[in-house]
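INPUT
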Amino acid sequence: MSETTLQAAAPTRFDTAPTARRKRRLSPARIGVYAFLFSAALYFLLPLYVMIITSFKSMDEIRSGNVFTLPLFATTAPWQDAWHKVSGGFWNSVAITVPSTIVPILLGAINGYALSFWKPRGANLLFGILLAGAFIPIQVMIYPLVWMMARAGVFGSLPAIVLVHVIFGMPIMTLLFRNYYASVPHELFQAARIDGGGFWRIFLQVMLPMSLPIIVVAAIMQVTGVWNDYILGLVFAGRDNAPMTVQLNNVINTTTGTRLYNVNMAATILTAAVPLAIYFISGRWFVRGIAAGAVKG
Amino acid sequence: MSNVHLRKLCITRGSNQIIRDLDLQVEPGEFLVLLGPSGCGKSTLLHSIAGLIDLADGAIEIGGRDMSYADPSERGIGMVFQSYALYPTMTVEKNMSFGLRISGAPKAEIQRRVRRAAEMLQLESLLDRKPAQLSGGQRQRVAIGRALVREAGVYLFDEPLSNLDAKLRAELRRELKLLHAALGSTMIYVTHDQAEAMTLATRIVVMQGGRIQQIGTPAEVYERPANRFVAGFLGSPSMNFVEGQLDAGRRLTAGVLSLDLPPDCAAPPGAVTLAVRPEDIHLHDDGPLQTTVTLVEPMGNHQVVWLDCGGHNLSAIVHDARILAPGQAVRFAIDAARISLFDQDGSRL
Amino acid sequence: MLAFRTNKLTPHIALLPMALTVLVAYIGAALWTFKTSFTASRTFASDNFIGVAQYVRLFDNERWLLSLHNLAVYGVCFIIACMVLGFLLAAFIDQNVTGEGFLRTVFLYPYAMSFIATGLVWQWMLAPGAGIEGAVRSLDFTSFSFDWIIDQELVIYTIVIAAVWQASGLVMAMMLAGLRGVDPEIYKAARLDGIPTWRVYLQIVLPMIGPTVATVFLLLCTAVVKLFDAVVAMTGGGPGTASEVPAKFIMDHLFLRSNIGLASAGAVTLLVPVLALLAPYAYARSRRQRA
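OUTPUT
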């Protein structure tokens, strides 16, 4: 190795001189990033914080204190009151959500499977219209559906609201499964056909067992969507089957007299509890659902 | 063209120490190839020279100046990435000039540099196209062009040919060699393909496990490998290894093989590993050793013949078209002047 | 196990539910509404065709015009705020920050809440006297006023605040998914070219995730048009009719004020911008797929 190092001409630069100091771990830019994220986190967490602390305060505390102070004398009375008011809606929501998740997933899977592998004539056009329908405001379709159900005598019943959720859940469910099956190698399907499988056999014995990840994602999305729905429940469920969201709004916005903010907040948390719990537990799958449906869609 | 000097370089990722106490001196104008298997640290080393990975310890000097903590854009380097990393929404011309425009270079200078690079790489007719409209080989050239316009002292290449098919790879390899001859710049090139290393390099640095195994010209590394790893890594089919014993009379016995070593061999007696390249095993009827053919692989201009020699599986290369059949008995000789000997630790004797 | 023989018809039969849904529930219902908008239907559908009279009446209706105005204001603010905030959140999280998983959870959880719950919480927080206004006043800023929710001009902005809170996390999640598809070597090449990080995101990465941005934009637009739950929960359309939005106008006239013809006209009018957005989007996608 030669000892003399060739002093090469410095490359022409048009702005600053090279830095010779050690790179600082935390540059101002990085601090700015954390500051922004921190402030945003505050904006997002504040309502949750307010909801929770309000639900544990007595009405006197609420009147005398301000909205951000922690409860001095925490009480669970508002929760008992709230549960008393919305528990009916809770069980209704459960009764609505379970079938409204199972059926759309099943149909979505069949649709996605048929569209991906069998491609019958006209199916893609139908699917295109179905997808377009997902973007259209519900108000365009709501009254005729009400009229048809009234004529059939099922309006206001549990099957009615489930059917409505099936209709309006079909686009996104079909999209999810179709995109999922599109990523399954086509050779797998061809091998199954050579092995003698027909439409239903391949679906039930090959594709459906492989679909667990997307079924989980679809279930999370559908449960969240159905549980949080208001407008369909308001119109189609009838008084006996009113879901929790409808009951919540009735309790809070239509009672006359003094508003019991603590009870209201407790009731709101109870209503939001199921989807929030699913979200906090499933985290990654929730995000996967968004990416699966939307980025490809 | 700049030199590059690495001194006691240490690079860690998390709790893993990837590179430890590495010293390397790159001469100005040379084409240095970092060669090794996946995970040996060659890409990490290249990225740290570029400034894309921080050093845990040690120093990097480029062109005589300490660049250990400088920003990548201030180091006087250009880099070509494995996936080309072209900006997809910009034309070829914009891709090549973007960095210069950001740094505020005068328009005339930008135009001059882009034109010069485009000429060298035959890109003139493609300047208005977007990367999606180019073939793999063309995209590769644009990536090189983007590095060239920086008129840097050192150019870094991170496995630039591995995304191309075999024919294109061979073609671009030749173009790169011509480019180096034309520019005379210092180039540091990372690859796992030993054929690429042999054809392009002025010197090869063979790496394994974050350490340099050997530095030398292609001939040196090929004919006098410093250890067993280097011996086995270069050459295709790879070198034949046979365990044996060397006695005081410079006679090597390895199973049914026996060989007299030339007088200039300084290896001490004891257990050794004999290493011999397939092309140094000559099959001819006067050969002192006997063996059986197990498999013949015709390669067009030569044949690879696999031999079962007393339980050892050896490969030999035959340059003529003679017919050899599995099970056939043949005689052969080993060119004793061209063998390598390794001790029990794997280093050269 | 299954003795069904697959014939040419089986896939078609399997898709029957989808076909029925599309033809009856979507197309059929939409056509029915379209037809009804040209009739004099009030409580029940009638066949009395009156041309475009309902549309004329609609655009003469102050409440409807106000709802359109509100929707426009809300739409612009909501979309811009969501996209900017969502993009910034995604870009900043993409910088290998510590606690990335925690941050993502925090920004996305509002999306798991129903619009009703969101509306109710923000109604409480923005309540004059008791909510944020009261809290700031109790810190001795006694002249601080934040009573937008009862202010006729400003109430629509309170809905923007609540809706952005709910939806930015979704925008962030989708943008992040798009960012993850960007070749990481692009950032290295840009660093080598000496390009500052903000420029990399703005001039290189953002154009690269163009399709994702377009999808997000489309989803936000359709969400704007569908705005209903949040208004019902937060303000009930008030004060008075100051925060009226088209979806609520239509629902009120369908079920409470028994004016189906007028409501149908409103629904068809609401449909027009959606179709106007969908058409170029679908066209662009099919062209890209063919390329």
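end of record. The interface with chain C takes residues 47, 50-52, 71-74, 77-79, 81-90, 98-99, 102-103, 146, 150 of chain B (CB under 8 Å).
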